[in-house]
Design a protein that fits this description.
CATH class of the largest domain in chain A: Alpha Beta
Radius of gyration of chain B: 19 Å
Helix content of chain A: 25-40%
Largest sheet of chain B: 4 strands, mixed
Oligomer: heterodimer
Structural class of chain B: alpha+beta
Largest sheet of chain A: 5 strands, mixed
Radius of gyration of chain A: 26 Å
Order of helices and strands of chain B: HHHHEHHEEEH
Number of domains of chain A: 5
Number of helices of chain B: 7
Number of strands of chain A: 19
Structural class of chain A: alpha/beta
Shape of chain A: globular
Strand order of the largest sheet of chain A: 12-11-15-13-14
Number of strands of chain B: 4
Largest interface: A-B, 55 and 44 residues
Helix content of chain B: 40-55%
Bound molecules: flavin mononucleotide, iron/sulfur cluster, FE2/S2 (inorganic) cluster
CATH topology of the largest domain in chain A: Rossmann fold
Strand content of chain B: 5-15%
Number of helices of chain A: 24
Distance between the termini of chain A: 65 Å
Chain lengths: 597, 176
Amino acid sequence: MELVRAHILVCGGTGCTSSGSKAVQEALHRELKKQGLDKEVKIVETGCHGFCEQGPLVIVYPEGTFYCQVQVEDIPELVEEHLLKGRILQRLLFTEPLTQERVPHYKEIDFYRKQRRLVLRNCGYIDPEKIDEYIARDGYVALAKVLGEMTPEDVIEEIKASGLRGRGGAGFPTGLKWGFAAQAPGEKKYVVCNADEGDPGAFMDRSILEGDPHCVLEGMLIGAYAIGSDEGYIYARAEYPLAIKRLKIALAQARELGLMGDNILGTDFCFDLHIKEGAGAFVCGEETALMASIEGQRGMPRSRPPFPANSGLWGKPTNINNVETWANVANIIRNGAKWYGQFGTEKSKGTKVFALTGKVKNTGLVEVPMGIPMREIIYEIGDGILGDKKFKAVQIGGPSGGCLSEGQLDLAVDYESLGSAGAIMGSGGLVVMDEETCMVDVAKFFLDFTRAESCGKCTPCREGIQRMREMLQDFSEGKGSLEDLDKLERLAQTIKDTALCGLGQTAPNPVLTTLRYFRDEYEAHIRDKRCPAGVCRALLTYYIVPELCRGCTACARVCPTGAITGKVKEPHVIDPEKCIKCGACMEACRFDSIILK
Amino acid sequence: MNCSCTNGGEGERRTAAQENIAKIIGKFQGRQGTLIPILQEVQEYLGYLPRWALNFIAQQTGIRPAKVYGVVTFYTQFNLEPKGRYLIMICQGTACHVNGSARILEALEDELGIAEGETTADGNFTLETVACLGCCSLAPVITINGNTYGKLTPAKARKIISQYRSRIRESKAECI
Ligand SMILES: Cc1cc2nc3c(=O)[nH]c(=O)nc-3n(C[C@H](O)[C@H](O)[C@H](O)COP(=O)(O)O)c2cc1C
Ligand code: SF4
Ligand code: FES
């Protein structure tokens, strides 16, 4: 390896790419060349660092100086100050909002300090397109250990002992699942990686695949050895082109080094992988639907049993795990089950990666030990609510999960506690909502999603979600009666009990949890014809605050129905009879004098 | 670029296209579960999946046309109609929803004069919604032909469209 005096890590994850990291990287190349530093300083494009909100991110090693929101225009100064003069460029450092202090090292930023990065240990540190960098960080050591000194039974026992549970949502013990597939009779067996990440508002799996694809491949190799499989599939969303590209590169490199293919590392063990691109259907994340889709069918779930462990892909025993589950495996084998057991709680071991989004100050990808209180994630890592508004709810688990309120903030984030609160761990979406979010609207939003994604095979899901959605529509327009709330609750419970697959069984969760924790908000809609958060249009009127209005006439000019009248330089008024609530006036007003009441 | 004003070559073009589709199908010969990847590649090649292409795929692979059609209509990725030159995808995921994506959608529908799922009459823009683009930290987000625009406001979204419009005008001017 060539010796250089500094490394500049530029994030190449989807978040930072969207905020312009490619151009920043090119500018760095140009500037280094111009300054004659291109031999001494190396630029590395890495996967996601997690702090997408502050992108594009640039980290300079050996010091580990963390620069955020770096723009092309900043590059000449950055190179001159940091790399020529050896001084930290203060103005690009992250400012801790609470103390207003500039923090040079990323490890000292609150966002990172509370995290335990095990699964994400390489994300943002290595170039995901270079297998050497993965190997340099002990990559494929676990595979060598497994092939050299462990029997398949040993591997399964080790995973069982670690207490690892599936990260795809349900939290089924991974070692146990492997054991079923290993014991299932049959010569041909498959392993599958579920990378269909369908939860709208989550991107953990994508970031792992983009930032450290080899750790998923290594996990799958180890799993394949344990259950006796020689062929596998990765089923990835087509909306994730960068992840798919990096997987393909990783696969080719692993094959070249004899880590994939026939006689891996000179042993009898043979295994290879195919990458399948999903074609856009949320229900394909469900394991039986996913396998139907790999087979080229419509992705409809089927009832279980038989479980995939006995009859999966093309009727053969199949073991399917989530991306993050696979990404945990090599760490456990390398460091041992005991080491892994130190993280997390008694029944929920290890860490969990969350996509923290919504109305929090710090959004991005975070990895925390299981059992951490929700409050710490939102207030310490996330640094509280945007604009210092009031916290209202946190949605965990996406369309299958639930909304928790203030009262649950001290809940431990583990499988059991979340389940007893009516939510689920889910795959890791964590959306924070503030006082301006209407919970009836949120429930409606999730039902819109599940209604569109229901495959239509069974009646409770196909018809039931539609009925629930209609009731919520009525509530959002101030119609319906308080008894309807009980009716809605009964219907939701019935769907939960009778739907065929996980989609239908969990679709009522957003409704049930909002009813449980935010019933007063439903009641306000129905009884008082009022949307407390100011979201449900039918219950709102646009109103011009006379004291704030300067009479600039901007609103009157954009109103499509001529509902706004008033003289120049005098406060205007909106005629509620004519107003169609399009919001054009509010957008046009430069003085924030139009409000919703 | 060749102009397609002369309508005479329709049949010939189709034969050529069929030959290429046959090549795509040939690549997957002897493998299992290949209908979806074949459809993905054909769509990539033609831009959409016209009826004749579906029938041709059915005939070549021996899969029943009804099944091919069933698979195509099940997955949102497949289009039976051609798309506009610029495909605008508006994220309607949870993070984008709580950050006001509904207003972005309204602004774009108004700006383009089409509803979600439609294409403008001049064939320049198609407007679609998507469940999450995976850049939730930048919510609300849209992509246009794969380029991401984040932290949008209705006004910003309108401005982006007008930039694309002037780009289209410039490229037309070059042609003349
Ligand atoms: C509607 C639905 C969608 C799902 N989507 C996903 C998904 O996107 N990713 C995932 O890993 N598991 C998803 N699952 C869970 C899978 O069915 C399966 O339990 C999981 O892949 C098993 O892996 P694990 O044991 O490692 O969690 C989904 C389940 C349902 C019912
Ligand atoms: S619950 Fe919904 S998605 Fe699942 S099989 Fe029934 S209709 Fe299909
Ligand atoms: S919710 Fe819009 S990008 Fe994820």
